[in-house]
Design goal:
Shape: elongated
Oligomer: single chain
Mean pLDDT: 92
Helix content: 40-55%
């Protein structure tokens, strides 16, 4: 009998799981997900420090829990998003229990559960490595616990032991910590619960003073416990968070005005963030219409559900009027209330239609439920099938780096989400040591020397600019101090990567070559005899001298030639990564540069001759002396 009782909820949960696991890692990670994985690598103090540096507004609880999760199961995009799937499924189960606690019928509670299982909004954020799914689950669970802990007016308190009360209040405090500790806007729902408690206190204060004073003591203790755990982080990050909320970190155009604000919230909360077009508006209106029908003449829970939805939206609108940064996902925890009302409205609508249609009430109910859920299909198909724009997909970047990254590599990144992306798409053994590239003119040289100390290679990770862009301070420093061996815009996206060699590759030969080219340039270089693997960088220190004034610009090349004379690898540039020109060199002056080349990942094993030569930059004409052999490299 109990198995039959739970068979429908289990089927709905399996349905919800399939919708949330399907195409879970189809879309590439986006900025906020990359930030989640970046912060998940950090402890409490480091979370706070870098939150200030990056003017990040998120509290740490979700990120710390995500860090524990990824340490156990890995940080792939699938694994990171799976952490959001789990609270998404718990939410679906909690909605059923919540419906029953609000005195809805079992059938209505099951329908609300099914609507939440198929809700595009809940599915979307259960498939994202962000804290919204956890906030929604924790917030909804806190409402359920509030109902258990707060008896209705006139009712005798449920007999419980002190231990049971402590456990329930402890669990309530934990749900508050999860909700607010994952997103500060979760506090709006706690404000709603306090208003409920205040209304009930006023309504039944007479004769129950002691009972309500005791209840408020528990409420304050639970909320204080959650706040106490978050207070150190708030104090450590207040300056950066408040600056971001005030909009001091840059311009942003959000939802402007009440029509756009409430219209967008109505559309997304009922349909999801990928909904658009006339059809989506019609479906959103239908869901809202069902919710209004559900409110009509509802004897139990209507004021709670209405305030659960309305107060966070009104508070959000007030906050958005101050600074336009509020998004519907911030109040994802209102969706269960909307679906409970829609489920009740669907039941009432079905009952009304059954007066005119000769079909059993159960069959008609299933038809209407199926129709509502089917109406969400276009939005879900868009969500499941729309790929990430190429410019924002960093999977090609990871694919390009995977065979090239070496243990001990450093990587300087200019955006916090970059390490998060690469943590998800690179195996642990291939990850470089990341450093946030925030410099001032005064700190640039000491900071870069500290980053590169004891290392032979460093990566630059950039977005929309390359390594030598004037805004790239780290790239400007490396241009004079290191040898560029590789750079690319993988996948034609907006992500750019560059690899620099910081010192000469060790050689087994003490020999020294001196080469004089026909245009008067003289080269002095150590003979290079070394063994490398595909993906390694080869760097050679070259000492140049002009024996006479040179009127034409010349490009220098370092090439590796196979035994049959074909070019296997190479890199060409004017001296010092193109920073200086031979036309500026005075006779007798000596100019040192570190010149490098990357061994391509697909280079076959064998011995390759290393040659150095020069050619006219404008005409491409090779110097009459021709290239000189300066050694060989064996590829293993």
């Amino acid at each position: 009998m109990r198995l039959r009782h739970f068979s429908l909820p289990i089927i709905i949960l399996v349905f919800a799981a399939s919708l949330r696991l399907y195409q879970l890692d189809f879309r590439a990670l986006w900025w906020d997900e990359g930030l989640s994985l970046f912060f998940a690598r950090l402890n409490y103090i480091e979370n706070a420090r870098l939150a200030v540096t990056l003017a990040d507004t998120n509290p740490p609880v979700y990120r710390l829990l995500l860090g524990v999760w990824t340490s156990a199961v890995g940080s792939s995009a699938f694994a990171a998003r799976l952490f959001s799937v789990m609270p998404g499924l718990i939410l679906v189960a909690v909605v059923y229990r919540l419906g029953r606690a609000l005195k809805f019928s079992r059938e209505t509670s099951l329908v609300a559960m099914a609507l939440c299982a198929a809700s595009p909004m809940l599915i979307y954020y259960a498939q994202e490595a962000k804290g919204y799914s956890l906030v929604a689950m924790a917030g909804t669970a806190s409402v359920l616990l509030w109902l258990k802990l707060t008896p209705p007016p006139g009712a005798l308190p449920r007999r419980t032991t002190l231990r049971e009360r402590r456990n329930l209040w402890g669990l309530y405090a934990f749900t508050l910590l999860l909700a607010i500790g994952s997103h500060y806007i979760g506090a709006f729902l706690i404000a709603v619960e306090n208003l409920w408690t205040l209304a009930l206190t006023i309504r039944s204060w007479r004769g129950n003073e002691r009972r309500w004073l005791g209840h408020w003591a528990w409420v304050i203790a639970a909320q204080a416990a959650a706040a106490a755990l978050l207070l150190p982080f708030v104090l450590l990050t207040y300056g950066g968070t408040s600056a971001a909320v005030r909009g001091e970190t840059g311009g942003f155009g959000g939802l402007n005005g009440p029509i756009q604000f409430f219209g967008q919230h109505a559309l997304e909360l009922t349909q999801g963030p990928t909904a658009n077009g006339t059809g989506a508006l019609i479906v959103a209106a239908a869901v809202i219409g069902l919710a209004i029908i559900g409110i009509w003449d509802l004897e139990v829970g209507s004021w709670k559900l209405l305030s659960w939805i309305g107060i966070p939206l009104l508070l959000g609108f007030a906050l958005n009027s101050y600074h336009e940064f509020f998004f519907p996902r911030f109040v994802l925890y209102t969706v269960p209330a909307i679906m409970l009302l829609a489920a009740e409205g669907l039941a009432r609508f079905t009952l009304y239609v059954s007066r005119f249609v000769r079909i059993s009430l159960t069959t008609l109910f299933i038809v209407h439920l199926s129709f509502v859920m089917a109406a969400w299909t276009p939005t879900l198909l868009t969500h499941y099938t729309t790929p990430t724009p190429l410019g924002e997909d960093w999977r090609p970047v990871a694919n390009a780096m995977r065979p090239l990254v070496r243990q001990g590599d450093a990587a300087i990144h200019t955006w916090g989400w970059m390490p998060g992306y690469l943590d998800a798409y690179l195996p642990p053994a291939s990850r470089p040591q990341y450093t946030l590239g925030f410099f001032t003119p005064e700190s640039l040289d000491p900071d870069m020397r500290a980053i590169t100390a004891g290392r032979s290679r460093v990566w630059l990770l950039d977005y929309e600019i390359d390594q030598f862009d004037i805004r790239n301070m780290a790239g400007g420093w490396l241009r004079t101090e290191a040898a560029l061996v590789y750079d690319a815009w993988p996948g034609e996206g907006q992500g750019h990567i560059a690899l620099f060699a910081l010192r000469q590759t060790p050689t087994s030969s003490p020999g020294l070559f001196t080469v004089t080219f026909a245009n008067g340039l003289k080269l002095e270089v150590t003979e290079m005899q070394t063994e490398l693997a595909p993906g390694d960088a080869l760097a050679v220190t070259m000492l140049w001298e002009a024996s006479q004034p040179i009127s034409d610009r010349y490009t220098i090349f370092l090439h590796g030639q196979a035994a049959d004379g074909t070019l296997a690898f190479g890199r060409d540039s004017e001296p010092n990564n193109g920073l200086s020109f031979v036309t500026d060199w005075k006779p007798g002056e000596r100019h040192s540069e570190l010149r490098g080349v990357l061994i391509p990942p697909d280079t076959p094993p064998g011995r390759y001759w290393l040659t150095v030569g020069i050619y006219n930059t404008m005409t491409g004409a090779l110097d009459e002396r021709g290239p000189a052999v300066i050694g060989a490299v064996t590829i293993r």
